[in-house]
Design a protein that fits this description.
The complex is a heterodimer of chains A (about 450) and B (about 220). In chain A, a hairpin with a 3-residue loop joins β5 and β6. Chain A is globular, with a radius of gyration of 26 Å. In chain A, the strands form three sheets. In chain A, strands 9, 10, 11, 12, 13, 14 and 15 form a seven-stranded mixed sheet that branches. A six-stranded antiparallel sheet of chain A has the order 1-2-3-4-6-5. A two-stranded antiparallel ribbon of chain A has the order 7-8. Chain A has about 450 residues and is of the alpha+beta class. Helix content of chain A is about 35%, strand content about 20%. Chain A has three domains: about 80 residues, Phosphorylase Kinase, domain 1, CATH 3.30.200; about 170 residues, Transferase(Phosphotransferase), domain 1 (Orthogonal Bundle); about 130 residues, 2-Layer Sandwich (TATA-Binding Protein). Chain A has 17 helices and 15 strands. The N and C termini of chain A lie far apart (about 60 Å). Chain B has about 220 residues and is mostly helical. Chain B folds into two domains: about 90 residues, EF-hand (Recoverin, domain 1); about 80 residues, Recoverin, domain 1. In chain B, the strands form two sheets. In chain B, strands 1-2 form a two-stranded antiparallel sheet. In chain B, strands 3-4 form a two-stranded antiparallel ribbon. In chain B, α2 crosses α3 and α5 crosses α7. The chains are: A alpha+beta (about 450), B mainly alpha (about 220). At the A-B interface, β1, α1, α2, β5 and β6 of A face α3, α4, α5, α8 and α9 of B.
Chain lengths: ~450, ~220
């Protein structure tokens, strides 16, 4: 099918020039004709996928990638298919590869390298927390967006690149094992998280040194150097940078530094800014913001409400819509879906509920803002997706019966669930029934 | 060109070609193919006959095939457009399309009205509302006295039944929803926007002809 290049259309995408080519996939530039947004279109031949028995793996990896929404990871937008091809629609970035910077300008100063490394570790940590491992972190997978932010590509899509190595024939053709952890070369089964971390260490070394820590034209020698972590730090490295690299490039995955330890590392922490998430997908944020916005107009309205000293009453239809029978989200594989909101009912007076939540949230490291029967709990600690921010509201279902709604306004959904678990144990005497109880009934 | 090979895949009765369903709904052909994946899973959980039976529907919603629920029954009845006691693939896709984030709000409001009009009289009577509130409380093991339930129902009727005739008609419903938009939140499933990522199995069996997605090497 090697015909001259024809610009075509796939679904709503206008397809343009080829921007990359690998063993399994061809990547083309494309544009969403509805929104004008540029994307990268990865095109796979089904024949090749089937021939290498990768179908199951690709399906699984697509489903996993759905969970990854991080500012430093290339987003997977959607998947399309025709009779002969699979099209994977990915976020397109324009800043080129990170390593072009090294090639063009040589090694980086520590502050610059640190910023990229912090973003890399954030991205890797976030994916690991969702059970997704890269397994093939290398320069080609580190891209930059127009603002110079790091974007890791091919996270979770490792089947597309890894399979080449599993197939003995392609082994050497696949290129450099320079970034691969010793236990991976050993081929004995390994912990994806620790192996990814090793690769991050090699990447950090290259950023700071301008050359590879492990290099040898002879593959056997190269393997030996990696397996004993034989490398020399250049003299210009600061002592603390050298210390960190040595802890990461520990050939024994059991004693190698972990990501939580890196987050506490002196060199790493310098000038650290937790990632900023644009939570485009989080709906219902406006009303949360509005409540706490100190506009005069709002004050007037809130004042009037305050006089009544009553929480908002839930009307009968709002009550009904809580039924599990009306919640069709459960049709879509509820197993992995963590919800962004949860509820419990309480027979305590609304004021008491507020006090109890406040008393429970503060020791967990939350700042509490109150306005009538709405609260906002803000974590002072930075989580994987920035600071966790929870909005709560108390509704009256009936006299002496209240419904408390907790909604994640910002931050990581997994952390929200952890928080809610903690909170609910502190609120035991307030909670009449939690949503979990409601679900488990009969 | 865009002809689907029914014989090859051996589809069960009630199957409809994704290309036709895509032309009637906000879904793309690939999304309908992804929905077929979900449909296959749901329709084979008890009897693998390509149809969703009531028990299979209950199993999906409650992880329990014997769980009776007034609201699940209503949804099932509305999905079962032909009223033959089962949900076919075409009915499944057409009904779910109302839940698409891009579906017209008026459709969502009308669907919910029909759902709450238990006896299909064209109005939601106060008795029906009470029945539903009671069912919700019962579903969650919450026991409230009848007085309290009456109070909840009365209060909502006061607000919704502006003509004061003991029932909510179509017009009153639209007004009420406008003032209480949170009521139709359940009519939008954000999952429907990420169908191709949630059910990627379709990529291997897609019937979309390459002419429809013409990309040449």
């Amino acid at each position: 099918m090697n015909q001259p290049k024809i610009k075509g259309r796939v679904g709503k995408y206008q397809v343009g020039r080829t921007i990359g080519e690998g063993t399994f996939a061809k990547v083309k530039f494309a544009r969403n004709s509805e929104t004008g947004e540029p994307v990268a279109l990865k095109i796979l031949d089904k024949d090749k996928v089937l021939k290498h028995k990768m179908a199951e793996q690709i399906k699984r990896e697509i489903a996993t990638m759905k969970l990854i929404k991080h500012p430093n990871v290339i987003r997977l937008h959607e998947v399309m298919a025709s009779k002969t091809k699979i099209f994977i629609v990915l976020e397109f970035v324009t800043g080129g590869e990170l390593f072009d910077k090294i090639v063009n300008h040589g090694r980086m100063i520590e502050n610059e390298a640190r910023r990229y490394f912090q973003q890399l570790i954030n991205a890797v940590d976030y994916c690991h927390s969702r059970g997704v491992y890269h397994r093939d972190l290398k320069p080609e997978n580190l891209l930059l967006d127009a603002y110079g932010n790091l974007k890791v590509s091919d996270f979770g899509l490792s089947a597309l690149s890894r399979q080449v190595r599993d197939d003995g024939l392609f082994h050497t053709a696949c290129g450099t094992p320079n970034y691969v952890a010793p236990e991976v070369l050993d081929d004995q089964g390994y912990d994806g998280a620790m192996a990814d971390l090793w690769s991050c260490g090699v990447i950090l070394f290259v950023l700071l040194a301008g050359y590879l820590p492990f290099d040898d034209s002879n593959l056997i020698n190269l393997y030996r150097k990696i397996s004993v972590a034989e490398f020399t730090c250049p003299p210009w490295l600061s002592l603390s940078a050298m210390k960190l690299i040595t802890r990461i490039l520990d050939p024994n995955p059991m004693t190698r530094i972990t990501i939580p330890e890196i987050l506490q590392d002196e060199w790493f922490k310098k000038g650290y800014k937790p990632p900023v998430f644009e939570e485009k997908d989080d709906t219902n944020l406006d009303d949360v913001e509005a409540v706490f916005k100190d506009s005069e107009e709002h004050h007037v309205m809130e004042k009037r409400k305050e006089e009544e000293e009553q929480p908002t009453t839930m009307n009968a239809f709002e009550l009904i819509s809580m039924s599990k029978g009306l919640n069709l989200e459960n049709l879509f594989d509820a197993e992995q879906g963590f919800k962004r909101e949860t509820r419990f009912t309480s027979k305590c007076p609304a004021n008491e509920i507020i006090h109890k939540i406040e008393a429970a949230a503060k020791p967990l490291g939350f700042d509490v803002h109150k306005k009538n029967y709405k609260m906002r709990l803000e974590s002072s600690k930075a989580g994987r997706k920035g600071n966790l921010n929870v909005a709560t509201e108390i509704f009256q279902m009936a006299p002496s019966l209240h419904m408390v709604e907790l909604r994640k306004a910002k931050g990581d959904t997994l952390e929200f669930h952890k928080f809610y678990k903690n909170l609910s144990t502190c609120l035991e005497d307030v909670v009449w029934k939690t949503e979990e109880d409601m679900k488990e009934v009969k | 060109m865009g002809c689907f090979c029914l014989k090859k895949l051996g589809h069960k009765p009630g199957y409809e070609a994704p290309i036709n369903l895509a032309s009637e709904t906000p879904f793309t052909v690939n999304e309908v193919e992804a929905l077929y994946d979900l449909f296959k899973k749901l329709s084979s959980s008890i009897i693998d006959d390509g149809l969703i039976h009531k028990e299979e529907f209950q199993l999906a919603l409650f992880k329990n095939s014997n769980k009776q629920n007034l609201f699940a029954d209503r949804i099932f009845d509305l999905f079962d457009i032909k009223h033959n006691g089962v949900i076919e693939f075409g009915e499944f896709v057409r009904s779910l399309s109302v839940f698409h984030p891009n579906a017209p709000e008026a459709d969502k409001i009308a669907f919910l009205f029909r759902l709450y009009d238990l006896r299909q009289t064209g109005c939601i009577e106060a008795e029906e509302l009470k029945e539903m509130v009671t069912a919700l409380l019962c579903e969650n093991n919450m026991s409230l006295s009848e007085d309290v339930v009456d109070l909840i129902v009365e209060k909502t009727m006061m607000e919704a039944d502006t003509k004061r005739d003991g029932k909510i008609d179509d017009e009153e419903w639209k007004e009420f929803v406008k003032k209480n938009p949170s009521i139709i939140k359940i009519m939008t499933l954000s999952d429907l926007k990420e169908l191709t990522l949630a059910f990627p199995s379709f990529v291997m069996n897609s019937g979309v002809s390459d002419l429809q997605q013409p990309v040449k090497n």
